[in-house]
Amino acid sequence: MKTAISLSDNLFKQAESTARKLKVSRSKLYALALKEFLDRRKADAITEKLNEVYSREPSELDPAFARAQFEAIGEERW
Question: Domains of the chain: which residue ranges?
Answer without folding.
Answer: 9-73
